[in-house]
Design brief:
12 strands; 10-stranded antiparallel β-sheet; 229 residues; alpha+beta; 29% strand; 35% helix
Length: 229
């Protein structure tokens, strides 16, 4: 009888401490509420250096069910194709979400492309050096039929830039421990080309000139608190 009482007491204490820990670690303050409202359309210039929006490219029609899911996860999205004087094209996709709780977190491109029927090559963590700073990025190649699409992306979680599942979850946990819900932004560029190395060089040139063109007071929306070089 005494032994069963002690076991019951221990179990009760564990349950109580678990419940208390859950309450303490449940984020309640949204970081987005402490910032000015983002406007992707005005932050990202339509023309910079020798890049401009390619008006010949028509945005694809989106399934209403997909639109509903996107609207649930993201507060704002921006999708454009840019072209330069050499006829090189870069597709830019940005998605912003105010609330990065687990069920509302930004979807990583490798997951979305795979769901859309693409074959995904090896994921590579690397850096893109710009005059603004050294940006940690993820690179991958998505293939479907004759379409070969080299992709460069990063995900901003609060002030941190993340690459892949582990870094994304670690950033979320860091904010959760502080009782905060981070906002998040997916920044993705891609090209359609069989020459992957050339594609990444074009993407790096595009990223460098774009970040220089964005107003300094707006860059934090894209890259968080990135240390300048």
């Amino acid at each position: 009888m005494k032994k069963s009482f002690i076991v019951s007491l221990i179990l009760s204490l564990l349950m109580a401490s678990s419940a208390a820990l859950t309450i303490v670690m449940t984020p309640s303050a949204e970081v987005a509420d402490q910032q000015n409202k983002i406007n992707l359309e005005t932050i990202i210039p339509s023309k910079f250096n020798d890049w401009k929006i390619d008006l010949s490219v028509t945005p694809p029609l989106v399934n209403p069910d997909v639109t509903g899911t996107v609207n649930k996860i993201y507060s704002q999205t921006l999708s454009r194709t840019y072209i330069n004087n050499q006829g090189e094209r870069v597709m830019l996709s940005i998605a912003y979400g105010r609330d990065q709780r687990t069920d509302l977190q930004i979807h990583r491109p490798e997951v979305c492309y795979r769901t859309a029927g693409f074959n995904i090559g090896e994921l590579t963590k690397t850096f893109v050096d710009t005059s603004i700073g050294r940006i940690p990025v993820m690179r991958l190649v998505a293939k479907q039929g004759v379409r070969n699409e080299p992709i460069t992306y990063w995900i901003r979680m609060g002030d941190s830039l993340t690459r892949g599942w582990f870094e994304q979850k670690a950033a979320t946990l860091k904010y959760g421990m502080a009782g905060k819900v981070p906002d998040g932004l997916l920044f993705r560029v891609s090209t359609i080309s069989n020459d992957e190395q050339d594609s990444y060089e074009i993407q790096q040139a595009f990223l460098t000139t774009l970040l220089q063109a964005v107003r300094s007071e707006d860059r934090h929306w894209l890259i968080g608190r990135l240390t300048s070089i």
